[in-house]
Amino acid sequence: MKLYTLSILLFIFSSFSIVNAQTAGNSNPPPITDKISNEGWLNDAHKASLLMEKNNAPLIINFTGSDWCGWCKKIKAEIFDTAEFKAWVKENKVVLLELDFPRTIQQSDLLKAQNQSLAQQFQVKGYPTIFVIKGKEVIQTGYVKGGPESWIKSVEANIEI
């Protein structure tokens, strides 16, 4: 796992709204209205960042290729879709943000632009790439063998949730 510095974190938070900055004079970008199939996950980065800040909550950002990436499907099935992970998310009030790069699923231009912009800012090189943000700390992770318990332990060992 990689630990990121405060300067990178500040850059990231200030960039959540940049994709939609074309709406001159409006600090609130238009909302992403694309449907998301993963229960409990958001796909609107602006909304996720507002929830994170409002509730002082941890944020998990999952860069995924949901319809083609084998490891993305594996982490979803073995970790994210489990009752143990969902209970941990609820207990810790974790905000979940999925940034998907599908090959066959249609997405709006707004969603595609947001996801591309954030992938560039986070320097995503492959999928799945997962960032966990809490306060001023940011870590990067991915698939961890051993199911939700192992994944949660690896995250909690590197960042205070």
UniProtKB/TrEMBL annotation:
Residues 1-21 form the signal peptide. It comes from the Bacteria. Residues 18-160 form the Thioredoxin domain. Keywords: Signal. The keyword Signal applies. InterPro entries: Thioredoxin-like_fold, Thioredoxin-like_sf, Thioredoxin_domain. The keyword Signal applies. It holds the Pfam family Thioredoxin_2. This is Thioredoxin family protein.
